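INFO  loader      accepted 1 record
INFO  loader      residues=151
INFO  predictor   begin
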Amino acid sequence: MAVEGQKLVFTRMRARHLAVVLELERLSYPEPWTLGMYRMELENPTSHLFVALLNGDIAGYAGFWLVIDEAHVTRVTIAEEWRGCGHGRSLMEFLLGQASDLGAILARLEVRESNVPARRMYEGLGFVTEGRRIGYYQRTNENAVLMCRRF
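INFO  predictor   done
INFO  writer      dumping tokens
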């Protein structure tokens, strides 16, 4: 049962986390990343992946690529039972802090047009809409909303 107010603990994603991450990925996205994709991300020096733990269990994960001074957010996922408790915002605040500490002056992301709760959260964190990518998500042919914020 979800209890509001519990604090997330963040740590770098490791191979030992992948079984749970892949299950959350499958449950959260119509086009989930694969084990091979995550293994490549863990070896990619521009990729920064983190898990969010509650009582030692993975409640979510997030990541970004740092390219020069721009952080491109690749994933932000909270397990369904923990959505609506503020954990997504906490995870994003942590992620943006990590990107800033590494020298990012700008963060960008794509979000499904239909994902209104996520879009509201990003706006609350200072992201603004830059544009749209029509039919960006191949499996569903859904548009992506492009969002950006400066640090």
